[in-house]
Each structure stands twice: as structure tokens, then as C-alpha cells.
Amino acid sequence: xxxxxxxxxxxxxxxxxxxxxxxxxxxxxxxxxxxxxxxxxxxxxxxxxxxxxxxxxxxxxxxxxxxxxxxxxxxxxxxxxxxxxxxxxxxxxxxxxxxxxxxxxxxxxxxxxxxxxxxxxxxxxxxxxxxxxxxxxxxxxxxxxxxxxxxxxxxxxxxxxxxxxxxxxxxxxxxxxxxxxxxxxxxxxxxxxxxxxxxxxxxxxxxxxxxxxxxxxxxxxxxxxxxxxxxxxxxxxxxxxxxxxxxxxxxxxxxxxxxxxxxxx
Length: 265
Known about the structure:
CATH architecture: 3-Layer(aba) Sandwich
Radius of gyration: 18 Å
Order of helices and strands: HHHEHEHEHEHEHEEHEEEE
Shape: globular
Largest sheet: 7 strands, mixed
Mean pLDDT: 94
Distance between the termini: 34 Å
Helix content: 25-40%
Structural class: alpha/beta
Number of strands: 11
CATH topology: Rossmann fold
Low-confidence stretches: none
């Protein structure tokens, strides 16, 4: 059941964790400042050339992916509802010497906050579970794209969003309900002592993602499931390469993440 506490609690959680993330090994700002991209090679391959294109990054957090796209020549706008995250993204972009704008807004209010359309909308890597209504999200994406524009999404697989601390199911995949958590710490700094710990998330099955986008007027061009993920979701996962984790040899190859490319008609 989604109520008015959804955004309030989640925003407090993200605000408290901005500084934790900036100093964490997970985000690894020293190597990022030295030129490391936060994007994966398959993202560059699947989305293609971005130089000169206007790219909007929804739920951009502290902007590492936004800045990485800007380094490739995209004209980037990042959007997030956390004042602390937006301020950090602006500082990082200025330090990096790239031209990127960052706007403080919720996803729902993005069209009125930005008042323009884009060639590309990019989002994901843990963004969708924080949204209670995917139909509204898809409509917003459609409004933000120019005709022929592209949505590119990289996200954790909803199958594992139904699992607990180990690869065992705890939540419904079919007809899921919003779930609330009250847990200290953080995915980037598990041992951190934190005060704002209550969060609300939603599992969005792949069928829901695809159907909402299709109803909103987008055509699916690519949907690829992967047996790797961008954070250590389970203790059983092993690092395969920098920023990539997989289940160890001998385990079934489960879908841990997916990427999706869709085009506005």
C-alpha cells in the first residue's frame, strides 16, 4: 500500500547517504576523477553514438553516469529529487570540466521542470524500484522524448528484487505489492551508522516495464537479460571484473540485471 510516507521516507534516506556515497569505495571517486567511466562497455554498444545529442538522466543521484555520458560528447541534463545529490553532481561536473546541467525535481514533475524534450532518456541501475507507479513513469518518459527519441534503461532484474539476503525468494514476482524496510546501513557502506532507515520499494516485473512503455507510445528495440550485476546483491556473488559481480561457477546462470532500449514512435 503506497501512502504519503513513500517519498518523504525515501528522500530522507537518500539525503543522508549522499556524503556516505561520495566517500565510499563503491563509488570510488578518486578513480572516477582520474578518468574512469562509470558506464559499462555494453551500454556504449547498445545505445550507440551520443556525441552532440541531448541526453536526460532521470534519477541521476550524484551524477557519475551523467558525467560519463558528457565526457563522450552528449549534452547532458541530470535530474534528481535529492538536493544534496544535485549539489554534489554539480560540484563533480565542475571539477571534471564537463558541461552538464543538473535539475532538482521529482520524476513526475520533470516535464514541467525541464520544459523541453530530449534525444535520449537514460535511467536505471537501481532507480525503478523507488517508483510506485510505472505507468506514470512511462508517460513521463514519452513526454520527455522527441519523436524518434530513445529510452535506454539498465536495471537490476526484478526476479532478484523478490529475493532476500540470499538467492531465495521472499516476495511475490506476480502481482507484487509495495514493500517497506527499516534497516540501518547502506548498499555502498554496509557498516555505516544511519538515522533515516525506513524505505519503500516496489518490484516491477519485466512484463510491467514493457507493457507500460508500449502503452505510453514506445516501441521496444532491445531487451537483454544478463547473468551479471553492478553491485554485490548477494554474499554468494563473486567479482568478475571492476564493477561487475556474478554467481560462482557451478551455480545456475540466473538473470541478475537487464538492459532495454525503446524508441518513441
